[in-house]
Structure formats: C-alpha cells, structure tokens
Amino acid sequence: MEHEPQAGLRARRKLETQREIHQAALELFEAHGVRETTVHQIAERAGVSPRTFFRYFSTKEQAALPGQRRMLRAIDSLEITDPDPAAVLRAVETMAETVMGADNDPELDEHRRVAKLLARDADLQSLAASQELVLPVRLRARLAEQLPEADPATLLLISETAVAVWRVSWIRWGELATRGETADPVAVYRECRARLRSAVG
C-alpha cells in the first residue's frame, strides 16, 4: 500500500512529460513548420533529453498528434441496443459526434491547432492516417462482440465508413480553420456525412 502513492506520482509525471513534449512539438511546428523542426529542438523546448523524447514518441510528427485516445475510449464504451444495420450505423454516428465535441469542449482549441497543422502538411496527414488504421479494426471488433449474428461484411462497411467520415471531418474542419472560418466540428461532421450519403445515393 505504501508504494501506491509513489506509483501514482510516477504515472502523473509520465503523463505530464508526454504532454509537455506534445505541446512543444505543436508550438514549434506552428512557428517553423514540420519539416524544419528537429527532435532535438522539441526535446529542448520541453526540457527533456532526446533520449527521453524517444521513450514517448517514435517520430517528431507523432509527438504533435494527440493520438486517437478519445475515439478509442468511445469505441470501447459503445453500446448497441438495436441490431438493425441502420440503427447500428446511427449509434456509431452519434458516438462520432460525441468525440468531435462541441464549442465548449476544453480540448477544442488544441484539436483546432492540430487540425490546422494536418490541413497544411501532407506528411502529417499520412502519419495520422496510419495511426487511425487501428480505429475501424477496434470498432468492428466491438460491434461483432455485441452482435455475434450480424453479417461480418456489413460490420466492416459500417466501421470503415464511419471512421473515414470522422477523419475527413477533422481534415475539413482544419481547412476551414486555416482560412480563418470558425465552425462547429459537429456541424462539419454532419455536413461531411450528408455529402457522402448524397454521393452514394
């Protein structure tokens, strides 16, 4: 029992260090660009060594991306009550809207900064896309767990499409932010979703 407070302190410090590196990367990328920024500069800004940097992130680009923690948490807590495919899709879309957040989301400003970086940097977009590969896999597994009788191809389509619309919405939101346009991310998500439905009939 005596070791628990110390363990908790170490865990908090680890999270703080990770966030400090993340913030340093964001600030430097915004000021100088992704390509021009080095790991050494990020580490120096965060007050850590390059070796410590690599304990938390494998690349400088990864340090700027918040990862998919919120989406993964939402997927893991997703509950499906109606097995009808249309109802499943609606439940997944509602979950995605929740993750997109609203204007009172305390993390919204940071999301906007990351989205703006993504909108103007193709390399960062590619890395974000690769990190997001785990999302449809996790979502499909969560749906299959709750709907064991469902058609696997249907669950795959729902999972892949839902994550694609979610990702495109963040990119679109970043493009708007880059142009100085203020937009509700949920509204952008709904617009992208509607455009897809219109395109596929």
From TrEMBL:
Residues 15-75 form the HTH tetR-type domain. The keyword DNA-binding applies. InterPro entries: Homeodomain-like_sf (IPR009057), HTH-type_TetR-like_transc_reg (IPR050109), HTH_TetR (IPR001647). Gene3D superfamilies: Tetracycline Repressor, domain 2 (1.10.357.10). SUPFAM superfamilies: Homeodomain-like. Keywords: DNA-binding, Transcription, Transcription regulation. Pfam families: TetR_N. PROSITE patterns: HTH_TETR_2. Residues 38-57 bind DNA. Signal peptide: none annotated. This is TetR family transcriptional regulator. It comes from Kocuria atrinae.
